[in-house]
UniProtKB/TrEMBL annotation:
The chain crosses the membrane at residues 29-50, 70-96, 108-128. It comes from the Bacteria. Keywords: Membrane, Transmembrane, Transmembrane helix. It comes from Idiomarina xiamenensis 10-D-4. This is Uncharacterized protein.
Length: 130
């Protein structure tokens, strides 16, 4: 009993960041933020498919099928909301990941960086195609 008390007294006090990193729940929070970010990106991809202008192919031109050449406003708004939500979640998760594992880079998740670049590319594509 006395040995345990001596061990506790010899340990230096932990900083708040070290205590935060030692908690397993924050690792789960980063994981769930990552999953929610990718889920919102999948939702953005589905709404992108229905919101974008329809492609004009040889068959549509040959058979005289009318083709929509504009973005649907409501679905494009949902597309931008889903993209921005996914971008915010992935940036938050990446920031938490960098802060928590500053000393050891074994927990660095590259899929967050890929998700950030894909969301930014989705914004750029939308702005260019309007």
């Amino acid at each position: 009993m006395q040995e345990n008390a001596e061990k506790l007294q010899k340990q230096p006090p932990q900083s708040a960041l070290a205590y935060l990193c030692s908690m397993a729940c924050w690792s789960r929070v980063v994981g769930w933020l990552n999953i929610l970010g990718w889920l919102s990106f999948v939702i953005a991809l589905i709404t992108f498919h229905y919101a974008r202008p329809e492609p004009n192919t040889i068959l549509t031109h040959f058979f005289g099928i009318p083709v929509r050449d504009y973005w649907l406003i409501t679905l494009s708004d949902l597309y931008l909301i889903a993209l921005s939500f996914g971008l915010c979640l992935s940036c938050l998760s990446l920031a938490l990941n960098i802060v928590m594992y500053r000393s050891s880079r074994e927990h660095y998740w590259f899929n967050l960086v890929i998700l950030i670049f894909m969301c930014v590319a989705g914004f750029v594509y939308y702005l260019v195609s309007i």
